[in-house]
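FAQ: What does the model actually see?

It sees only this:
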Amino acid sequence: MTPQINPNTMTDEAKTAEESQRVGPPYQTAKGVHDILPDDHEFFTYIKKVVRHRARQHGFRRITTPTFEFTDVFNRSIGDTTDIVSKEMYTFQDRKGRSLTLKPEGTAGVVRSYLQHNMQTLPQPVELYYIEPHFRYDRPQKGRYRQFWQFGLEVIGESDSAIDAQLIHLFYTVLQDLGVADQFKLQINSIGCSAKNCRPKFVVDLQNFYMGKERNLCEECSYRLPKNPLRLLDCKKEDCTILAKLAPQMRNYLCPECKEFHGELLLLLKGLGIDYVENDKLVRGLDYYTKTVFEFWDKSQGAQNAIGGGGRYDGLIEIMGGLPTPAVGFAAGIERIIENMKACGVKVPTKDDIHVFVAQLGFNAKQKALLLMRELREVGLKTVGALGKGAIKNQLRVADRFKVPYCVIMGITEVRDGTAIIRDMKRGSQKIVKYETVVEEVMKLIGAENLDTYTPGEVLY
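And it is asked to produce this:
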């Protein structure tokens, strides 16, 4: 057993020797998680703004569920045979021995909240959206992390193909707004319902088809066959893919109701101008889906870079203890969307550009600079200043790094004369103005349309 060394008892020489063996910084993020740095926050902020705008247009209201739930919320809803439950959940016990899990997906928590807060008494359908982090112990790769952000929308309390079509169209509209819709193609399928002659008969025939072929399946599919045979259809391993092409097709088992529902949905999507591919092998990775399932796949990389998807889950609320209630939803990965936006060269608008830099020299100038910065900010001018003791020349170098268009300079002479210098950083020209007119002069230069103003009570999100 390797002895554990207490760093507090190590000698200075031992600490130095240990530090010399380190590669890179002493502290780094854990595998599969990442910092969202300021430049990426520009993308996050823009995506959130687009999602909020489109969701509100359609009457959705925002919900946020806890970061962790009782583990049974996910075991019952997602299904204990899914990869998420069996392999990918971050589960722990609290101090009273209760099993809790960091949420791996959003729908289960929304449904739990719908039931707990009696939302069935509200006008139906209830339309909710979320923008939240989720957690899965998955193999990290490009655009896929163990802590990842998703936005999602759920419509609970109505069963109609027009609801599904509207939700898919909303998803597509968001992708258009973000400049990446052309990179993706809608994949859609119906996996039937639990009616007597619909999915149950298909599952039996599917298991019979694979019987005797187990040695040709990958290890995961061999495990899934008796418990969740639908998942064999979307396995990406070569031998499993070949068998899936020969397997029975769900379309041949759909009951009249499911067949009519799916046919209507496809007609509605055509009417909305959304191109799609009917994909018999698309089943999604969660047990609660029924009828409609869909994903948006990268046109060049296919399912390996699916940006998001969803489907109908008409039986989930009953599974979780409520009355039978139809529902449909989708979720999309924000990090994956950002990767695609960058690849497409999408430039997002930013509100972080600084308008003006205030440079000062001397204590009296520093006093006036603090007051001036406050006044500039209150009228909507984004302002920074160097409040240390550096020379004006050094402060102007800092202003250059902020890429500000204008700099206000105050030194001993300006304080004495009641003036200030406004410098155009791009042209290198400057002019002297009265101190009391600085705010007005800078506002004219920046333009009223560019001010970042806020009125108490104004809705900003």
